[in-house]
Queue: 2 jobs
Job 1
Amino acid sequence: MKLIFTDTNVLFDVIKIGALPEFFSLDYDICTTVFVIEEIKPSFQRELIDTFIRAKKLTVFEFTGEDIEEVVNFDIVNGLKRFTDKSVIWKSVKLNCPMLTGDKKMREIAENIGIEVHGSVWVIDKLINSDLISTEKAIELLEQLLKTNSWLPRNEIERRINKLK
């Protein structure tokens, strides 16, 4: 299976639209950092994520002191303020794997250094293409995304909804 690294935004989106089981059924080894997991504060969301960690559907990478120092000194991510975001890009580079993010600045930095980057809309596309959800369910999830995350590309989502109808 192919590795794919996710940030906090995509996890929150997938939780909010109720597609966590389908997300972890994709044909990917989904990974993240311990810092992303620490950002999931609401207990019900954390319990959901912990279920998939225990089931070995989500791999969480711990960081040594050396790793943390490398992330701090990772010049490529200087435009990012949050250590969590830097850790996700750094680990994607180290593992040479695609990254999932809903953060525009993270996407720009990752793409500039050659990392394949996708977001929450791509996740729904993959769920459809993998026959994990029906077209009707995809429309419902896309509509939920529009309601729960105003930062996503509204026109692109509406275009996908219309194409699916």
Note: Residues 135-148 form the longest helix (14 residues).
Job 2
Amino acid sequence: MSSSHLSPAATLPDGLAAGKAPRRAGMGRRERRGAETRLRLFRCALQLIAERGYSNVTVEQITEAADVGKGTFFNYFESKDHVLGVMAEIQLRKMREALLLGGNSKRAIHSVLHHLMLRLVEEPGRSPSLARAFISSFQTSEGVRSIIGSNMREGLKMIAEVVAAGQERHEIDPRLKRDKVATQLLQTCMGTVLLWSLHGEPALEARMEDSFQHFWRSIANSSREQEP
């Protein structure tokens, strides 16, 4: 069974739905094929998880959907848990990009954090079923929690640095602890996705916009006129 039977990849992360791995300079044909196979396995796993739930998907089903042998799966992932580790890598990359943007003194931290929060919910926000599947995987798999937790700790440090930049520029209340603000940002994102996943309405983007405004008002430097 090939992956062509799966529903459209609307639930896939940006840059992954096209079905082609990004080409890097110096990457040979063998490396490109390996990257494309890993991507295909990830895409099929994500779609199956969204449709059936994490605990109801097996490695055999993933490899069958991707039309590769079971041994091929383990060339790229240690276990099913590590497939979701790709999602953690994507999220971590977004936090790293925010840190770079925060280092640009011409970019307001308000704008950086707003952009980051919207970006962080893109993947789970592809569909309520996918969001519920992710939440379920955290609850049922110690492996997934370990992988996500490791990336989250690293990501929190990056967000805290962005917050520190905001305090230095007098956008964020200097009395607040930067690590607490970073944690609050992730809690806001995760809580918003959780509530949205229950019904799917209103649209997640609208929910996140509202959540961000409340989040920003709670951390903004009141002694300085802030963006609305």
Note: DSSP finds nine helices and no strands in the chain.
